[in-house]
Write a structure and sequence with these properties.
Strand content of chain A: 15-25%
Strand content of chain B: 15-25%
Helix content of chain B: 25-40%
Mean pLDDT of chain B: 95
Low-confidence stretches of chain A: 1-10
Low-confidence stretches of chain B: none
Distance between the termini of chain A: 84 Å
Radius of gyration of chain B: 18 Å
Distance between the termini of chain B: 47 Å
Mean pLDDT of chain A: 96
Structural class of chain A: alpha+beta
Oligomer: heterodimer
Shape of chain B: globular
Number of helices of chain A: 22
Strand order of the largest sheet of chain A: 3-5-1-12-9-10-11
Largest sheet of chain A: 7 strands, mixed
Number of helices of chain B: 11
Largest interface: A-B, 30 and 24 residues
Helix content of chain A: 25-40%
Structural class of chain B: alpha+beta
Number of strands of chain A: 28
Radius of gyration of chain A: 28 Å
Largest sheet of chain B: 5 strands, antiparallel
Strand order of the largest sheet of chain B: 4-5-10-6-7
Chain lengths: ~800, ~280
Amino acid sequence: MTAAEVTEAPAAGLGTRLPRKEDAPLLTGESRFVDDLAIPGALWLGMVRSPFAHARIGGIDTSAALAVPGVRHVFTGADLRDGWAAAMPCAWPVTEDMKAADHWPVADGKACYVGDIVAVVVADSRYAAADGVDAVVVDYDPLEAVVDLEDAAGDRVVIHDALGTNQSYTWTLAPDPDAVERAFEEAAHVVGERYVQQRLIPVAMEPRGVAAVPSVYGGDLTVYSATQIPHILKVMIAATCGVPESKVRVIAPSVGGGFGSKLNVYAEEFIAVALARRLGVPTRWTEGRSENAVATIQGRGQIQDIELAADADGKLTAVRVRLLADMGAYMQLVTPGIPLLGAFLYGGVYDVPAYSFECTGVFTTKTPTDAYRGAGRPEATYAIERAMESLAREVGVDAAEIRRRNYIPADRFPYDSASGLTYDSGNYGPTLDRALELVGYDDRRAEQQRRRDAGDTKHLGIGIATYVEMCGLAPSRVLASLNYAAGGWEAATVRVLPTGTVQVVSGTTPHGQGHETSWSQIVADKLGVDPASVEVLHSDTAVSAIGMDTYGSRSLAVGGVAVDMATDQVIERARRIAAHQLECAEDDLELADGGLRVKGTPTKAMTLQEVAFEAFSAHNLPDGLEPNLVGQVTYDPPNFVFPFGTHVAVVEIDEETGMVELVDYAAVDDCGVQVNPMIVEGQLHGGIVQGAAQALWEEAVYDDDGQLRNPSLTDYCVPSAAEVPSIKLDHTETPSPTNPLGVKGIGEAGTIVSTPTVVNAIVDALAPFGVTDITMPATPERVWSAIGEARSAQEGAS
Amino acid sequence: MIPAAFDYQRAASVDEAVGLLGEHGDDAKLLAGGHSLLPLMRLRLAAPAVLVDIGRLEDLSYVRSADGQVRIGALCRHHDLATSDEVREQVPLLAHVAGQIGDPQVRHRGTIGGSIAHGDPASDLPAALLALRSTLVARGPGGEREIPADEMFTGFLETALGPDEVLTEIRVPAVGSAPWGFQKFVRRAQDWAIVGAAAVLGNGNSGGPGVGLVNMGATPLRAAGVEEALRGGASPGDAAARADEGTEPTDDLNASAEYRRHLARVLVRRALESAGA
């Protein structure tokens, strides 16, 4: 390749909208998901799941199932109990005295939620397995379900006998409780609100799936799983199944979304491994869509009490929060820690001098909760951004104005929050100004008033919310202080091969994000090569041995930074080799045209390929330099990163039917330096709609018996493109000072802020009726009822 | 998501389908577009022993005009109905309703015959056919018979079709430019209607206004009270106030019965207003 050709390579640098490398294989079906894998001789697993939320398991009659053609075995919890090296892991015991029941892959004695596995059918085909599941007869003795959080906390019915209570833990963050007390005593304005975060089903497009392939004689085991966390899964398989970790290889092939639901290790993964080892043949399982609704973790599930204290001008002086959080029936991988991810952020983007937070986690007889896009931070943002509306009403100022009065000033960064965080960088006001401009705020307000004056039955509402999130999980020392079991570093290797192509090995595990494209851009930009010549390897623990995977908007801010730093090492080594070969000082070399050249003497140059070949042949390297052109970094970030932004929604509400239509939406976000703006926008589009779904459409509805009433996409209302307007995006750029790329995460931002944005718009539209809150999701009937009730109250009062 | 085992037979003609139905009795189900039946089977809410596939009977997919009627083959897909020039000119309400069903994939597979024979009160086409005073043609072992739409829907997912009858044709009065309106209340574009209302005024055949209701009871319904009020010269608002008369809407996750009654009144009024009543 000549230098001229290199300079003509497509622009790839940071900020380029490079089309995604991943898209062609995904769109053509070339990508392979777990269920696509051809695994000769694999037996299919079918899970017999409890139809009761809470029941003692009596006898299990497997005879009819074993008579089904193609069914080979049926295993109960008792059959498998002795095979486990440990109960399923919870990696985040948030307090020293946290109570948690042992969680076995197959329940034994008692089922604690609808969907709890009570037996496993092993069959020649998926069809035979399904027929076998239907034929297993379980003698259940139903017990009372525990559905409501406050009822659960009251221990009327205790779910786990050994614990003696449904209250698992109470976690407190109160750096200066006296200051909080004082602020409330002296406040000119106090508002207190209660919000309910309904449970949500993550609904990744690809349900879960796992296949375990044993080598009977070699003793090793390859596990394919639709997971976000192959590296963590490998550790957990070793711990739970008693397999030496060195014998386990985990591969996450193409994975169709996760939203946190695949940031987990599940019973089915352990069952597949245990039975593959026991039977000496491959086992596999693919989750059904309705099965996914009960068997995969759910998100949210909190009752929030938030109080704000403010001075006469509406300037916040304290925030006090109390949560009741629904753990579900058992602790999954990080269930108890989810509220903690929001615990530091109930002060939001505001300068809050005094702060206290307390959360109690309770067990219920429902599917376990765990991380769902945003995980704790959407809940926090919702509470503060909804409560700020109440404060604006209380003080008598506009929703935009109350925010401007309280934003942390731009000159205060890095900002030490009363909750104990250091916000790296921020400048909130401009995102509000721009978002308001994008929706034509003043015109919208005028139109809103015009309609009100005219008695129009179509009401306009404008909602604003500003957010900051802590993401890029995470500094390992901070995780230690929160009792999280693992670290938050990330690993990367960059190799320039002798022929000049570049291999990047990343410990992050993409499941739709586009890491192959973004990591290629980071490397190509720095090395001056074509991004097409950069190959990114990931998601296979035999290829990428060290990694902490993908969640918490960490991949770019931690993993991408590791890639960047490993590239720096490559350049530093290349510089030493080139200086040696060209007989010049290292400082005399500059990176240009895809190689290194002597400053001022462009003819004295080596291409990167030439340097790589020298490093490979190792015939003539400087003394002390190892062969091969490789950089390898494990990066532990010094701090979280703190992306922020302001979103504005405009809704139109049909007073007669209660229907809410989202008519306009503007988002101005700041995630620091953008590597690929197209990917950033994609994350925002999806995230915004996913958050709006909590406001308007989605809820896992449980009845009093603990039955999930909407375990299908007919009844669980995931919105489509038809339900949302074209979203207006813009951004500001405030680089993070804590990493060399200046980047911040963007994977969860949209979801974190769009929920309160939309609900604020709904409540704004309903203000003339005296409505000040609405239960999520704001279904047409709920809105219609709220209008009716408010009217009755007004008539009663007059 | 895995159905119970079943046998599959593909019928080469309507008569063969009738024969297969006679042979297998209640164990058999007809498969056309499969968009209601297959989801029920995958959830194991339905487990027919035999599926008789009539989905490839090309001679049941047609639209013809004759004798002041539009005759529609039972296998006509929703998309074909929505885009048929004859239907759009002669029964624009029906073309519009068909274009609102589900999503493009559903509209390219689902059939008008399947939608009627399934008898789901939440389906849109039956309410439109009731409003239009349509006639359905069924073929059984004894030959063909006509069933007025009013007599078709006998209970929840139950119809007047015998176990060995195949719905073959839908005959709709060619109402041409008669004013019409359709209102479908959904949370998401692809959803079944929470409530829907179809109205056609100055109905060519009966001379009277027709109003059909979606999802206001166990079966697709005619809003008889509204029709009576309209015949008596009532305004859309006054007529629509009777929209929920005689209905028994369900309470479910999408709506309470009370809210459905309210929606029926609002939607019927809007359908009548948009028709220009």
